[in-house]
């Protein structure tokens, strides 16, 4: 074996195993009130401009009713009211974000979209302990540059409490 081959072989052996790329969570960010929230991008069926909806009697105030999306009747939930914020008139930025998890589907009224966000798993802090685990819809708090984004659990949002 020539000297060059020996050096090459040593270099190959001394190389550290490659570090796995850190997992990144892909989310869609949106504003409700003054806060920024996000949900996993794969849980979103679609984002649409507001449609007419029909009130359903006997539901909590945050359930606005149901709307028809291409033949499917979907419940419509106002996140402002669900988060105990005052109701506001819809603006041209208002959107319905249709979220699907397993067979559950619902539309959520949001004030406006922000952007698609990619956050490293290591930049997501767990839910603060002050929030009870039973009705917790928060997955964690994501840190992106100088912003804090509350990441919501899809299954928590879609859980029927009525």
From TrEMBL:
Protein name according to UniProt: PURINE-BINDING CHEMOTAXIS PROTEIN CHEW
Taxonomic source organism: Wolinella succinogenes (strain ATCC 29543 / DSM 1740 / CCUG 13145 / JCM 31913 / LMG 7466 / NCTC 11488 / FDC 602W) (Vibrio succinogenes)
CheW-like domain span: 24-162
PANTHER family xrefs: CHEMOTAXIS PROTEIN CHEW (PTHR22617:SF23), CHEMOTAXIS SENSOR HISTIDINE KINASE-RELATED (PTHR22617)
GO biological process assignments: chemotaxis; signal transduction
Signal sequence extent: none
Record-level GO cellular component terms: cytosol
CDD domains, sorted: CheW
InterPro entries in UniProt: CheW, CheW-like_dom_sf, CheW-lke_dom
């Amino acid at each position: 074996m020539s000297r060059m081959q020996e050096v090459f072989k040593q270099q190959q052996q001394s190389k550290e195993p490659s570090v796995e790329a850190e997992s990144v969570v892909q989310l869609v960010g949106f504003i409700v009130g003054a806060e920024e929230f996000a949900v996993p991008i794969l849980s979103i069926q679609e984002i649409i401009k507001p449609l007419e909806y029909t009130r359903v009697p006997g539901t909590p105030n945050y359930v606005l009713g149901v709307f028809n999306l291409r033949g499917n009747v979907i419940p419509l939930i106002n996140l402002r009211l669900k988060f105990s914020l005052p109701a506001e008139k819809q603006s041209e930025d208002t959107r319905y974000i249709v979220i699907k998890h397993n067979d559950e589907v619902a539309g959520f009224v949001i004030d406006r979209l922000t952007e698609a966000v990619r956050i490293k798993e290591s930049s997501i802090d767990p839910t603060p302990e002050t929030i009870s685990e039973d009705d917790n819809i928060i997955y964690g708090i994501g840190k992106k540059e100088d912003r804090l984004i509350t990441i919501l659990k899809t299954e928590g949002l879609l859980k029927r409490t009525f």
